[in-house]
C-alpha cells in the first residue's frame, strides 16, 4: 500500500496536517498492498454478483442445463481458487525468503550500501540522479525490491526500484542489485539522509515486507549554472602585497590626474593639449588608487526583512531564486581575474569538507534566509566590492548602507518577485491535453494572489527608485 | 518528493506490446464468446476485434500522453452520435436499419475499448479490475447460455478455452503492469531481462496450474457421471471398442449397460433375448394411428482413430447435439433439459417434439436412450405392481424428424414400405448439394483417414455412386450396393455374426472392413455402418455412425409400446441434410435375428398420473398416525414439472391416508416417519382430487403457497436423497489421502494468517524474550546487560529514542525518568559501571537492579492507553530498527 511521497516543503495549496503526513509515512510500511485488497474486493464482488444472479440456493441447478452455472463455479472455481492460493503462497514464500535473508545479513548489507547523488554527494538542484547499490541482497523470484530514501523530517523520496544487477568483473553471477532514479530535489540546500527503507514485494505486488537501514549521510544541491553576465566591480581589498593589479579607477578633481613628465614615462601618455597651452610636458597618471587591491569581496546578504508568516513554500522558492542569482553573480565576477570572496552573513554549514575552490558555492547552496544580521551589521564599507541584496531587504536599510558605502561599490538587487515569472500561456492543445503539472502549480497560484508578493513588488520599486536617486553603481537582476 | 515518469517512445512500444496486445488477445476470446452467446447482425470476429484494437490503442496512447478525458470522450461520443444520425439519410429503409444497428454495435465496441484504453493508461490498478470484470463477464455469459451437451469434456473445454486465457491474463496483467511501471528507462538489456522473467513466470504459473489440476480432485468429480460421457478414457478400453463411451460409467448396478449392447456380435448369444427396457412412444401415422416407431439412439461415433484403429466418440464434433444425462442421478420428477441440442441438431424442417416413457428393466439406469434428438429427461414413478419388473422409468422429450420413421429406415422388400420410403427420398432429393453448409462442419463429417484402404473404399464408392447426383441418391446407391445381388442372383452381402477372429473388436475396424468389403462380404451391423460411413464421406456426404437400438413394432395390442431386447442393439448411420438435420439410414442387409424373431411382448406398465406437486423437505414432527397426517417443512419442490423455491421455509400438512410410504428398501408405514427425517412427497394430478390447476402468469411459488392444506399425498418416500448421495460417498472413498479440499483451503489460509500474526507478534515476542533474559540471567554482569537491553527495547518500542548528542545518563535522566519515574538513571549508572569499569557489580548495584527490574514495566506502561500501547507493540519496523544495531548499543 504505497503512499504518495511527502513534499519536501509544506505546500500552501496542498498543506497536510501532521496527522496525514504521519499516516502517509506509516502507510508505506503496510504489509498488505492495494492489489491484494483489490483482488479480494473485486473477487468478492464478482462472485457475489454471479452468485446473486445465477445461483439459487436450494435448487439443484446441476439438473437444469440452462443454469449449469453452479457446476462451472464449483469445478473451475475450485481449480482456480487453489491455483490462486498456491500461487500466492509461492509468491509469499519466495518473498519471505528474500526478506529473511536481508534481515539476517542486515549488518553486512548496511556496511556495503552504496548511495550516490549526482557527483557523489553533490548535485545540481532539480532532478537529481540518485543511485543505490545493495551488494549481497536477494531479490524475490519474479518480485522486486524497492527502496525509498528517508530524509530528515519524515520526508521520503519516490520509490527507487532495484532492478539492475551488480556484477563483479568477469563474473556471471550478480553480487547485488542496484537501481537509480531522478529525484526532484529542487531546493538548493543540504539534505540529510536518515534511513533507507527497503520493501520486498512479491510478483503480484500484493504483499510488501519492509526493512529499514538507518544511515547517516548528507548531500547538498547547488544552484544550476546560468549564462554569465557582465558585472562591473572594483577590488577594494588587499590581502597580499605581492600582487599588483593596475586597475583604472575614477578619481574626482582638476589636475589630479596629471604629473610632470619624467624620464621613463610613456611618451604616449603626454597630454599635448596642456603642452600646447603651457609648454609643460605632463603625462596622464594611470588611474590607480590602490595598486595592490587584489580581491573582490562579494557581500551577498540573505537578510529577510519581512515579518515572519506561514509562507515557507514562498520563502523556499525565493531563496532558490536568490541563490541562483548569487551563484551567477559570483561566477560572473570570476573571469575578471581577481579573486572573488563570498562573505557569509551567517554561520556556514560545516557538514561537508569541501575544497577551497568549492567553498563559495557550498556556502551559497547551504545558506538560508536570516533576520539576525542586517546590511548595516553585515556589509563592511572598506572591503565591499559588490553587495548583493534581495528585494526582501527594507528600503531604509539599503538607503543607510548606500550613504555609507563608497561610490565604487557595486550594488546588485535581485528581484525575487520574479520567482514565478514563467507563467504558462494557454494554448489550443491544452483544451485536449493536460499540460505537464508540477508540484509548484499550487504555490504559483497562491503566489499570484498573495499579499506578500504585492509587498515585495512594492519594496522592489522603492529600492529601484532609491538606487537611481542615490546614483549608486549597481544593477538589478 | 514525487518523481515523475516520462513515457518515451520505446517505453510506449513496450506498453503496447506487453499490455495492449495481450488485452486485445483476451478481448478476442471474450468477443468470440459474446458472439456465440448473442446474435448480432453478422459483425464478424475480425472486424470487432480490429475495431476494439484501434479504439483501445488510440485511447491508450492519447491518455498516456495526458489527454483530457471528459473533453476527448465527449468529442468521441459526439462524432458517434453525428454519424449515427447521418445514417438516417441513407437510401433504403432496410439498409438504414441494418447499417444503423451495425454502427451502433461497432460504436459500442469502440467506445468500450476506448474506456479500457483510458483505464489501462491512467489507473494503476485497472488491470486487476479489468481482469475481474472479464472473468465475471465470461462466467456470466457461460451461465446465461447453455452448454452444447452434457459432457464433462465441455466444461473442461470451456475452462481451457475461455477461463484459462482470462485467468492467465489476470496474473499476467498484474505481474506485467507492475513490472512495466517499475521500468523507467528502456534498454535492450532490460527488455531482454523482462522478457526472460516473463517466460519464466509463465512457466511457473503453468506448472502450478498443472500441479493443481492434476493432484487436486475437484468436488465436481461425482457430477461427471451426471453429465455423461465425452471425457476421454485413459484406460485404453477393451477390445478396441469406443472407449469414451458410457463404459466409463462403470455401471455397478448389476444391469446391462450400453457397453454390452455396443458389442453387437456378442449380445446375440445366450443372453440375446433379455428384455432391456420398454418404451411408450406416442408417435403415430395418419388418422388410423398406425404406430410410427423410431430408432432409439444412444451415442454417435464420428471420428476414426487410425492410431488405435477404432471409431471414437468425439465431444469436439461440430454442433454436438448429443444429449446423454445419467438418468438415475436426476431426482424424481426433476426435469433435466438442454434445448441447445435442438439448435445444434441443425434441422427444423418436418420436425416436432414427441415425448417418450422409458421403463428400465435390464438396461443400466445410468444409460440414456431415446429417439434423436433428445433434449429432456425426467425420472418418473412406476406403478407399484410394475416396480419389481421395471424399477426405474424416465419421461424423455425428443425433437424428432418425420423423415426418421423406422419404416423409412428399414431395408425391406415389402412394396408398401418401399413405396412409403419413396416419399422420404423424394423430399430429400430437394437437397442438391452441400454448397451452403459451413466448411468446418462439412469437412469434419466428410473427412476420411488417409491410406490405401480408404482410397480403395473411395474408389469403390466412386464406382457405386457414379450416377448419383444428389446426396440422397448417393446414400441410396450405397444402400443398394449392399442389397444388390450378384450375377448368380445371390445377395452380394450377407448378414453374419460369424466373421473375423474371436478377439476382433465388436465395432469393425478398417482392417475388418477391408475383409468385409473386398473379400468375405459377410458381417453384422457395424460392418455395414462403418463401410457406409467411409463410402459416403468419400463422396462428400456428411455422415456419422450411430449406436443404439433398432425399434421393431411388434405390439399388436398396445399401440405405441415397444419392447427392446438385448439383440436389438444396433448400429446404423445418420446422414446430414441441410434443413432436415440428421436422418437415420440403415444399410445393414436383412437380419432375421434382429427383426423377425418373435418376441413375447409383456404387459406394459400402467402409466402413473402426472404429479402436480413434488416436495422434498424435512418432517416438522413425528407423523400423526391417528389423523394420518404429516407436516413437512418445505422450501423447494416441483409444481407441474416446474421448479419452485419458496422465499422462506413453509410448513405443509399432507394427508397420508392413501399414500404409499416407502424407503429405498421397500414399503414402510407412516409411523416410521419421524421428526427431522428427510422426506419426499408426491401428489398426483388425479381427477378424483381437488388440485390447483397451473395458472399462467402466476409463479409456481405463489400457486404452491395458495394450495389448500392438507394436500393429499400419494407417495411418501423416506430418505429419498440417499440414492443421490451414493456417488459422492463412493467417490470420496478412493481419495488417496485423508485431506479434503476444504482442509487444504483453510489450511492455506490458516498458514497465511498464522504467518501474518507471527509477523505482527514479533515485537511482543522480542519483549517477552528480553524480559525473560533479564529475569533469568545468572551472573550480575549478564543481568545488567539484559536489563539494559530489556529497558532499551521497551523504550524503543514506545518511540523514546536517544539522540546522538545525548549521553546515556542524560537520556536516562531527562527523557526517561522525567516521564516515567522508573529510576532508570540509577540503573544506568550501575550498567555503565559494569560495562566500562570492568568491575563486577557490588551489593549496592545488585540491590539497584533487584529493585529496578520488577518496578520497571508498571509505571512505563501506565503512561499509555491500551490501544496506543497495542499499536506500538504491533509496530514491527520499530523492533527492526532496534534489532539491527545491537553492536552500537553494546558499545555505549
Fold and architecture overview:
The complex is a heterodimer of chains A (477) and B (892). With 477 residues, chain A is of the alpha/beta class. Chain A folds into three domains: 1-222, no CATH class; 252-286, no CATH class; 295-476, no CATH class. In chain A, 33% of the residues lie in helices and 22% in strands. Chain A contains twelve helices and 17 strands. In chain A, strands 2, 4, 5, 6, 9 and 10 form a six-stranded mixed β-sheet that branches. A five-stranded parallel β-sheet of chain A has the order 14-13-15-16-17, sandwiched between helices. Chain A has a four-stranded antiparallel β-sheet with strand order 1-3-8-7. In chain A, helix 9 runs parallel beside helix 12. With 892 residues, chain B is α+β, with helices and mostly antiparallel strands. In chain B, the strands form six sheets. In chain B, strands 22-21-25-23-18-19-20-24 form an eight-stranded mixed β-sheet, with helices on one face. Chain B has a six-stranded antiparallel β-sheet with strand order 7-10-11-8-1-15. Chain B folds into five domains: 9-216, no CATH class; 246-406, no CATH class; 409-544 and 572-593, C8orf32 fold (Roll); 611-727, Copper binding periplasmic protein CusF (OB fold (Dihydrolipoamide Acetyltransferase, E2P)), CATH 2.40.50; 742-890, no CATH class. Residues 219-254, 260-271, 720-739 and 886-892 of chain B have low confidence and may be disordered. The interface between A and B is large, with 86 and 88 residues.
Distance between the termini of chain B: 35 Å
What's the overall average pLDDT of chain B, rounded? 79
Overall geometric form of chain A: elongated
How does the major sheet of chain A shape up?
Answer: 6 strands, mixed
As residue ranges, the low-confidence spans of chain B are 219-254, 260-271, 720-739, 886-892
- Which structural class do the helices and strands of chain A define? alpha/beta
- Assembly type of the chains comes to heterodimer
Alpha plus pi helix count of chain B: 28
Number of strands of chain A: 17
Mean pLDDT rating of chain A? 78
Strand content bin of chain A = 15-25%
Largest sheet of chain B: 8 strands, mixed
Our Rg estimate of chain A from Cα atoms comes to 33 Å
Strand order of the largest sheet of chain B: 22-21-25-23-18-19-20-24
Q: SSE string of chain A, helix = H, strand = E?
A: HHHHEEEEEEEEEEEHEEHEHHEHEHHHE
Q: How many discrete structural domains of chain A?
A: 3
User: Judging from the principal axes of the Cα atoms, what is the shape of chain B?
Assistant: elongated
Q: N-to-C terminal Cα separation of chain A, in Å?
A: 47 Å
